[in-house]
Design goal:
The structure holds three protein chains of three kinds. In chain B, the strands form four sheets. Chain B has an eight-stranded mixed β-sheet, sandwiched between helices. A six-stranded mixed β-sheet of chain B has the order 9-3-2-13-20-19. Chain B has a four-stranded mixed β-sheet with strand order 1-12-11-10, with no helix packed on it. Chain B is 28% helix and 24% strand. By secondary structure, chain B is α/β, with parallel strands linked by helices. The two termini of chain C are 23 Å apart. By secondary structure, chain C is mainly beta. The chains are: A alpha+beta, B alpha/beta, C mainly beta. Strand 32 of chain A pairs antiparallel with strand 18 of chain B.
């Protein structure tokens, strides 16, 4: 078991730095630069996890982000844990702990493996056909289904890491740092274009950088040596930024791309301390060059999923890049020349290749000839019909293919192996292109989908554009770039490239076996255990579209999003249904290209940065005085100020009494304030509000109700005429921004002829409201120079004045029914004015009160709160506020809607007051109101909108909306609660001081 | 009679390697004439056809679908099913649907996996508390099993929610409807299709409607990419594309079609056993049986038929998710997608006759149509068959936009003083 | 996310703007003269076009100006931007 399969040194791995990591609790060693996969393979470990449905043992398939099988939980039971991490992507670091997933008790012995034996009765979609009896049992079935599904485990602790966002604007974005991407980046940057090159791997260079074949030469150097020099050169370019470990997640419209830059996932706990883990790059590129390469396809044949079965290109990369042999007895299985390249590479590294199974009749390429010369046995026109070995492949059986490729013939031979490299051709990585809205075209010769119609300024180059041979890649890349970047020449115009031709092609999407299909397991989607049988079953049952088949069989819906198997699924559908691939189309590739951490998407918008806090200028005073706060929109508002251990109820009772008996003070700064100026300002208000504004005198205030165009109450507040052409409007706290937007909308789009200018001044003023019978005395102490007489400053009027030479506005307006003064002063003086008033009011026991007391006091007066007593279904008439509707006005926003057949009805819900029979019984806000408890179904007439115990009236009071309520004064109704019914009487909504005597007390 | 689905049929078919399963629905070529044609092969349209055949004896009917059945919002939503709506009309409609859901798998002989794992709605400010209490009281009196939960009870029912009172918008309480839950969205379309097909309904896919032929006051048939189909009754259930169909007869509807996005995480073992919705911070979350966290984002504010929305919306939703579930920070988004939702000004649907005889619309479901699928189909079938609405969908007529009797489910328009 | 060329500020991210729905629906000058049906047409009925739509946008996090856009709602491509009060371009 404990073998070392490391071959002679690789320059991409730092063999001087040994890294210790744990896998399933056992300690192993690798080198810096290893991925978890390469390190495991070097330790001769192939069995990494279990599959989703059948819990079959699975190993490492690939060497990249397309890996479907080798996914692990890292750092389990810590705050740094992460499920479903691809062993082929994560770089090892000192202390890394990885564990297998979806298995119990262990990956070697997994109880769930029983599913593999039950697989005959678990075809695609079996769950749609059963678990239906008895009907009530689904939750019980589901309990077990959910537990056997899922892969890794969710983290259980908050994430200690930090993330951030970065905006990048560039002229050219190059996605993918393979040979064509590097050339594109150089050409672009050298033209003075601000260029960004990103690659998901730790180094750029793609697969060329470890390509040591003598058949690929550029300017008489091996392609890898040539590219090394190029990389050295582009590292010096000023206009070029290179970001590695950076993966494009999404390609949206208008060349807006999201990328994840991974900064610390390859570092040990010590090294990454206090560093940003990942950065979400929000890239806006004028032009995008996609050079994302291509993904090698597997082959679909019986039992093609055992640990030890890998992509041929992965075998090559592990040997050439990581210096690791994936097996000691290797066999390759192919439909093209790729496997021959791998064979030559392995041979050069001294890794034994026992045989190549090739489904083609012959291959005359130089590669093929060299492999023959090496002495590797080649089985032509042959296919693997089965594989053996439960937790690691041990041998394969091989037979001759029929001419049409649909069946096998001849004698079955067995070949021993501990690793089978499969090569099914190449699929261009067109995912990002299609995400951006691009349309694909099917290329029959190579059986691939290629970019056809580009929806934005972008282009694809290299093998993601269907060029697979070095000379073609380079020549086409240059041709395409010249046109795309509108240039006449490039640095590479005299380049000399020699490549080799992949001559013969033969593609069979589902390879035949000697067994009937029903007895085989040819996997198409490894992770989700979807087989070719499942796809054929779906078609048999009438699912025809690729989307249907995908959803029915779950093909392509694993964490790899079908990067390996989607083309085979399409091919098998096309072959079975007898349609052309081009007519089938593909499924939609949805973002992200590879899974993206929520934390990365969220960035710094967590905890206290989740949303901004809006605080009033007096906030510090409230905090110091132990206020409780209420969230109102983004504002933090003082809710109540408990004395010592007072409950909210006790505090509110005390505050309410104080305000009515002596004096109270409220921070009203959060109310929206809009400064309105212009010669048509009063006409504008006239059109906005339901009442009339043209005759409001300078220095006077007026309450206004604003409707939506559909006649429903939208906002309210007091507006003051500061001057002939100057008003200040107040709005509700939460409605401020919307009201301003609405005003601007009407002004700019409906009434551009009006001379009116709007400015939001909410944050410019601190607003302090002092109310109660002693308020006048207090205000006169604070502003001795202001004449507070009824003549000079009557209710609903305002005066400009100064306090200690600071300009301020004093409004005599009241939301409590008490005599009341609202002082507006430049925001930064707010706290000192507040303290001054508190000091002056000390002798009157001035009591700060919060929003809760404000709500109680206004309810005693029957004043509404928009949003609490209204819900966008009530007109002013419903609120019994007919007095504010200017019926003589020709028009105002929402007027016409008040006269529709259902809005003029008399039996609409109307605002009323409620008194409980038991004056101590306080109703629950939101409780429903009925007239008849016995009627079934019970008929609800309305609900309680506001409810308080009034210390000033010594009884419970409530506001409610009740159907036909305005004609029901004195009538008894019921509030049915869970355990009792409460009797209430409908009364006028004004409970206190109907004559408004207190305003001028 | 189609062969019945059961564990026994699965075992039996295992012996023949599942080679003998029948087509779940056929692939007919359209007839020249039908008694009724449903435009739109989503869940609602297929359910409508199913109930027309089953309850109203109409056998000569067709469903025409531009693409593939269930390929629109049916297959793109976050599968939440609940009936805890505020207004009587809505509660009646959605609870009617919920009652059908409770036996739908058995009725269709197709497991739609209706999982009554409960739906919680969270309150984050005092007005939320009032609104949720109001809704709970109304639900109780309407016979809907909704209860109000304190913050502690919220935590108990779903322990992974961050109920610290120190966060930006702390959880102040919530409601729970236990009969609510989720279902397997694709299965609903497929189950209804199979059931309708069995009763003789023609399900015609890849058949785009190009025009509607009409006289002055009634319909005569539809022009499609597969030819003209004569019919006297047309039920339009085209979701985001309702306005496109309406424009074929010169009608305008009170609809705007906007992008709605959703996303799933990679699958993990069970971690959240209920559905949690939060309107105030905008985050809906549940976990699919496969193990993916299913997260609903919001709508963009512009009209679009692209099935794509802006990234800001997704980011905003995940911000809220991490505010409430900080443990999900290292979970990863696997897939994100968008649908086109047709939104009414009052956030309630339209199931209605029109001014043209024989033309009916079922649309305006906005962001929440999936949960209503069975009820919507049943009531729309009733409306089409009788040329009169059922009492449960009478309030959801088109005339409400004229008379002013909206069913406003937006709730409170503004925030309190 | 679109890039929108605000006629007053130049090209900006979509996140700076708010959409305002179908353009060129004028508020009736004499609402009281309209029938309930006619008023409902103004209030609620929309073309909701799939294709080129003329629509209103507001640079809400910028100059706060309203303006019009011609956008293809089937692919979100913006074809033209023009100021309030101007006639829609022929596309």
């Amino acid at each position: 078991m404990a073998k070392n399969l490391r071959t002679k040194g690789s320059k991409f791995i730092d063999e001087t730095t040994r890294v210790c990591f744990k896998f399933n609790g056992n300690k192993y060693f690798g080198f810096k630069g290893d991925t978890l996969a390469s390190a495991l393979l070097a330790n001769n470990i192939h069995l990494v996890g279990r599959s989703f449905k059948y819990h079959r043992p699975r190993g490492i398939m690939t060497a990249g982000s397309e890996e479907p099988n080798a996914i692990v939980q890292i750092n389990d039971n810590t705050a740094f844990t992460e499920p479903n991490v691809r062993a082929t992507e994560i770089e090892i670091y000192e202390g890394l702990e990885a564990t297998s997933q979806n298995c119990w008790p262990s990956v070697n012995f997994d109880i769930g493996g029983i599913n593999n034996f039950l697989s005959p009765i678990l075809p695609a979609g079996f769950y749609y056909k059963t678990f239906m009896w008895p009907a009530s049992f689904w939750l019980k079935y589901e309990y077990f289904i959910r537990r056997s599904a899922g892969l890794g485990k969710s983290p259980k602790f908050p994430d200690p890491d930090i993330y951030e966002h970065k905006y990048i604007h560039c002229d050219v974005l190059v996605v993918g740092g393979g040979i064509s991407g590097i050339m594109a980046a150089k050409i672009s940057a050298k033209r003075g274009l601000k260029t960004l090159l990103v690659d998901e791997n730790p180094n750029i260079g793609g697969s060329t950088i470890f390509q040591n074949s003598k058949y690929y030469k550029i300017n008489n150097l091996t392609s890898s040596s040539w590219l090394e020099n190029e990389i050295k050169e582009i590292n010096k370019l000023e206009n070029l930024t290179i970001k590695t470990r950076t993966s494009i997640a999404a390609f949206h419209g208008y060349n807006f791309l999201l990328a994840r830059e991974n900064l610390t996932d390859h570092l040990s706990a010590n090294e990454k301390k206090n560093k940003v883990r990942q950065r979400l790059l929000k890239i806006r590129a004028k032009k995008v060059i996609t050079a994302t390469g291509s993904l090698e396809r597997p082959l679909v044949f019986n039992n093609n999923d055992r640990p030890g079965i890998m992509l041929s290109s992965a075998l090559k990369k592990y040997a050439d890049f990581f210096g690791v042999a994936c097996g000691e007895q290797n066999v390759l299985f192919t439909n093209n020349d790729t496997a021959y390249e791998t064979a030559i590479s392995l041979d050069q590294k001294g890794i034994k290749v026992n045989a190549i199974i090739d489904i083609r009749e012959n291959s005359n390429s130089e590669l093929s000839k060299e492999v023959e010369a090496i002495g590797i046995k080649i089985y032509r026109s042959s296919t693997v019909v089965d594989t053996y070995g439960y937790k690691r492949i041990k041998k394969i059986s091989v037979m001759q293919l029929s001419t049409d490729g649909q069946s096998v013939k001849g004698q079955k031979i067995f070949i021993n192996c501990d690793c089978l490299g499969i090569a099914g051709g190449w699929t261009p990585a067109v995912h990002l292109f299609t995400q951006s809205g691009g349309k694909l075209d099917f290329n029959e010769e190579d059986q691939i989908f290629l970019p056809k119609i580009y929806p934005s300024k972008q282009i694809s180059i290299g093998s993601c554009n269907g060029d697979f041979e070095l000379d073609k890649i380079i020549n086409n890349t240059l041709k395409i770039l010249k046109e795309f970047l509108e240039i006449d020449e490039t640095e590479y115009d005299n380049i000399d490239v020699s490549g080799t031709r992949n001559l013969n092609k033969r593609n069979i999407w589902l390879l035949p076996s000697d067994k009937i299909l029903g007895k085989t397991k040819p996997f198409v989607d490894y992770q989700n255990d979807a087989t070719a049988k499942d796809i054929k079953l779906a078609l048999r049952e009438g699912f025809r579209s690729i989307e249907h088949v995908k959803r029915y069989t779950t093909t392509g819906m694993g964490t790899d999003q079908g990067k390996l198997g989607n083309m085979h699924a399409l091919g098998i559908i096309a072959d079975t249904a007898g349609v052309k691939m081009s007519e089938l189309g593909t499924t939609t590739f949805r973002p992200p290209y590879t899974p993206l951490s929520f934390g990365t998407i969220v960035g710094r918008n967590v905890g206290e940065f989740f949303d901004i806090f809006r605080k009033t200028p007096m906030n510090d005073w409230h905090v110091k005085n132990k206020s409780k706060f209420e969230n109102v929109g983004q504002w933090k508002r003082a809710w109540y100020y408990p004395n010592g251990n007072e409950s909210m109820h006790e505090a509110v009772q005390r505050e309410s009494k104080a305000a009515r008996e002596s004096a109270g003070i409220l921070d009203a700064s959060t109310l929206g304030k809009i400064d309105i100026q212009g010669t048509d300002a009063s006409e504008f208000l006239n059109r906005l509000y339901t009442n009339s504004w043209t005759k409001l005198d300078i220095g006077k205030c007026r309450y206004g109700l604003m409707l939506n165009e559909d006649g429903m109450v939208y906002d309210d507040g007091v507006t003051t005429r500061l001057d002939k052409n100057h008003f200040i409007m107040t709005t509700t706290t939460g409605g401020a921004a919307n009201v301003l937007a609405k005003l601007e909308d009407y002004l700019q789009t409906e009434w551009p002829e009006l001379d009116v200018y709007l400015t939001s001044v909410t944050d410019h003023y601190a607003t302090i409201s002092v109310c109660g019978p002693n308020s006048k005395k207090i205000v006169s102490k604070v502003i001795p120079n202001l004449d507070l007489s009824e003549d000079n400053l009557p209710h609903m009027s305002f005066k400009n004045t100064t306090i200690d030479n600071i300009k301020c506005r004093v409004m005599r307006i009241s939301f409590t029914g008490e005599q009341s003064y609202e002082i507006n002063i430049q925001a930064n003086y707010g706290i000192s004015l507040w303290e001054k008033i508190m000091e002056s009011g000390k002798e009157f026991n001035i009591t700060p009160y919060g929003t809760e007391t404000m709500h109680l006091l206004r309810a005693e007066k029957g004043f509404i709160i928009v949003g609490q007593d209204t819900d966008a279904t009530l007109t002013p008439i419903d609120l019994q506020m007919d007095w504010i509707v200017g019926k003589k006005k020709y028009d105002f926003i929402g007027k016409r809607s008040l006269y529709r057949s259902d809005t003029i009805r008399d039996d609409r819900k109307q605002l009323v007051g409620l008194l409980t029979d038991d004056p101590k019984e306080v109703l629950e806000e939101g409780a429903q109101i009925v007239a008849n408890l016995n009627k079934k179904p019970i008929e609800m007439l309305g609900h309680v909108t506001s409810s308080y115990y009034s210390p000033n009236l010594n009884k419970s009071i409530a506001l409610a909306v009740v159907r036909g309520g305005k004609n029901m004064l004195g009538q008894k109704l019921f509030i049915p609660m869970e355990n009792k019914s409460i009797i209430v009487t409908i009364v006028d909504p004004v409970f206190l001081d109907k004559e408004n005597n207190r305003l001028n007390a | 009679m189609k062969n019945k689905y059961s564990i026994f049929s699965l075992v039996k078919n295992a012996f023949s390697y599942h080679e003998n399963w029948e087509k779940a629905w056929k692939d007919p070529t359209p007839k020249k004439e039908y008694d009724a044609v449903i435009i739109g092969g989503g869940g609602h349209g297929l359910a409508t056809a199913y109930y027309l055949a089953k309850k109203h004896g109409m056998k000569n009917i067709a469903v025409v679908e531009k693409g593939w059945i269930g390929g629109g919002n049916t297959g793109r939503n976050t599968t939440i099913i609940r009936s805890n709506y505020l207004w009587d009309a809505s509660a009646g409609l959605y609870d009617h649907a919920l009652k059908i859901w409770e036996n739908l798998s058995q009725e269709l002989n197709y497991n739609v996996m209706f999982s009554q794992r409960g739906v919680m709605n969270l309150a984050h400010n005092l007005q939320d508390v009032r609104d949720l209490k109001r809704r709970t009281h109304a639900n109780r009196l309407n016979g809907i099993d909704s209860i109000y939960l304190t913050t502690e009870e919220v935590k108990k029912f779903c322990p992974i929610i961050n109920t610290s009172q120190e966060i930006r918008y702390p959880v102040l309480g919530g409601t729970l409807q236990k009969r609510a839950g989720t279902a397997r969205h694709d299965a609903v379309a497929w189950g209804y299709a199979r059931g309708a097909d069995e009763m003789g309904v023609d399900i015609i896919q890849n058949c785009e409607v190009k025009g509607i032929k009409r006289t002055f006051d009634s319909v005569e048939g539809i022009e499609t990419t597969k030819g003209f189909i004569k019919t006297k009754k047309i039920g339009v259930v085209a979701a985001g594309h309702s306005s496109v169909i309406a424009s074929m007869v010169g009608l305008r509807l009170p609809l705007e079609s906007k992008p709605l996005q959703a996303l799933v995480s990679e699958p993990v073992k069970p971690i959240i056993d209920t559905v949690v919705m939060s309107n105030a911070v905008h985050a809906y979350i549940s976990q699919s049986d496969k193990g993916e966290l299913v997260i609903g984002a919001g709508t963009d504010d512009y009209i679009s038929y692209t099935q794509k929305g802006s990234h800001d919306i997704v980011e905003g939703t995940l911000n809220a998710i991490l505010e409430l579930y900080p443990i999900f920070s290292r979970m990863r988004m696997l897939r994100q997608w968008g649908g086109i939702v047709d939104i009414c000004p009052d956030a309630s649907p339209i199931i209605s006759k029109t001014s043209i005889k024989g033309l009916y619309f079922n649309c305006g479901w906005g962001t929440g149509g999936f949960k209503a699928t069975p009820g919507s189909g049943d009531l729309f079938a009733h409306t089409i068959a009788n040329d009169e609405p059922h009492k449960l969908n009478a309030a959801f007529n088109l005339n409400r936009f004229v008379s002013g009797d909206l069913v406003d489910e937006h709730g409170a328009a503004a925030v309190a003083h | 996310m679109f890039l929108i060329n605000c006629p007053f500020c130049g090209e900006r991210e979509q996140s700076e703007f708010k959409a305002g729905g179908e353009a060129h629906i004028s508020r009736p000058k004499q609402p009281t003269e309209l029938s309930d049906d006619e008023w409902a047409e103004y209030l609620f009925m929309r073309k909701n076009i799939k294709g080129i739509q003329f629509e209103r946008w507001n640079h809400s996090h910028g100059c706060r100006k309203w303006f019009n856009i011609a956008r293809d709602t089937s692919n979100d491509q913006i074809k033209a931007v023009y100021k309030m009060g101007q006639k829609p371009p022929v596309i």
